[in-house]
Design goal:
The protein has 357 residues and is α/β, with parallel strands linked by helices. The chain is 38% helix and 13% strand. It has one domain (3-341): Aldolase class I (TIM Barrel). The N and C termini lie far apart (47 Å).
């Protein structure tokens, strides 16, 4: 079957909620760069059916940074990491609530409260519950997601009771590869936490990190495993190879491949909120707007330990591409130009300054 026929099949299946075959998902990842626009067009039909042209903005608050005893090879907060990240223990509740408020003012409809570490103690749950309660009181319509590592008995229920809407815990990569990216906990530990969150009534959020040296098959495996877990949202991270971590030299991704990964995830989890997450700026570069045709959600602002694109540039990118920010929906096209944006030339010919070349 030729690629267009396979894409057509994938779209039809996704629109009726059917699972693609392993080979169909693999074909998306292995399609040629020259066929990229066909892949995007097919996956966009699925995205548009479930989410229109809305983009949900999420905002990260790193409650506790670095100093983690775990050894996740991709993470700048791991034990022994030489990356010069900010390291601090729990933010004061008022500070966390104020940071969340800044993200909400910027347009975020979900706040993700994240803390480094293997998993929370019961005292940590108390602290985070307090922050969740304060955010929900001030912004009842905003979703709060917690991301605190592996959960033990009763902790998910306590977060839910405090008002948390969701819990994030990524599968990251295929189960078979897990020992090559972490030795201090297992893939099964991660699956267990996603299930605990789900059982407690928290909306499960679980995704991947691509670019860690995995094969195409591994990405299909983890996407299909995620589908089985029925997450409501699927963050797709592209590895940020932090110098000072074991994966600090893994620059394996091209913008085209990143877009194919997003399309494959969209076909496998058609009605899930697919979130364009860490690494989009460095791996997609000027191709970022194309990702909006596949993902329906992005992070606004900075990541946990690295800076993201300026938030006003994200909003401009969304408007220029003809998408709308969720919660600020408008059917009116947004004009992004204007006289104040025209910079009159003051360099090159007719001046003493060098040209823009
Ligand atoms: S991913 Fe989480 S558990 Fe792993 S090293 Fe980083 S902060 Fe620790």
């Amino acid at each position: 079957m030729d690629l267009l026929a396979i894409l057509n099949n994938l779209t039809t299946k996704a629109l009726s909620g059917q699972k693609p075959t392993y080979d169909e998902a693999l074909t998306v990842l292995r399609s040629k760069d020259d066929d990229l626009m066909d892949v995007i067009a097919a996956a966009f039909r699925v995205r548009r059916c479930y989410f229109g042209k809305r983009v949900k903005l999420n905002f990260l608050v790193n409650l506790k940074s670095g100093l983690c005893p775990e050894d996740c090879f991709y993470c700048s907060q791991r034990r022994g990491s030489d990356t010069e990240i900010l390291k601090y223990t729990w933010l004061k509740p008022d500070e966390a609530v104020a940071l969340a408020g800044a993200g909400i003012s910027g347009g975020a409809r979900r706040v993700c409260l994240v803390a480094s570490g293997r998993g929370p103690t019961d005292r940590d749950i108390d602290r985070v519950a307090h922050v969740i309660g304060a955010i929900k009181t001030a912004h009842p319509k905003v979703e709060v997601c917690a991301c605190l590592g592996l959960l033990s008995d009763g902790q998910a229920a306590r977060l839910r009771a405090a008002g948390a809407d969701a819990y994030n815990h990524n599968l990251n990569t295929a189960g078979e590869r897990y020992p090559s990216i972490c030795t201090t906990h297992t893939y099964d530990d991660r699956v267990d936490t996603v299930r605990r969150a789900q059982r407690a009534g928290l909306s499960p959020c679980s995704g991947i990190i691509a670019g860690m040296g995995e094969r195409d098959e591994d990405l299909v495996d983890v996407a299909l495993a995620l589908r089985e877990l029925t997450p409501d949202s699927v963050p797709v991270n592209f590895l940020i190879p932090f110098a000072g971590t074991p994966l600090g030299t893994e620059w394996n991704l091209t913008p085209q491949y990143c877009l194919r990964i997003l399309a494959m995830v969209r076909f496998v989890c058609p009605d899930a909120e697919v979130r364009l997450a860490g690494g989009r700026e460095i791996h997609l570069g000027s191709m970022q707007p194309l990702a909006l045709y596949l993902a329906n959600s992005i992070f606004l602002g900075d990541y946990l330990t690295s800076e993201g694109q300026e938030s006003h540039r994200d909003l401009k990118m969304i408007a220029e591409a003809g998408f709308t920010v969720e919660g600020l929906d408008s059917t009116k096209p947004v004009a992004v130009g204007g006289p104040e944006r025209v910079a009159l030339r003051q360099r090159g010919a007719g001046t003493d300054l060098p040209p823009n070349a």
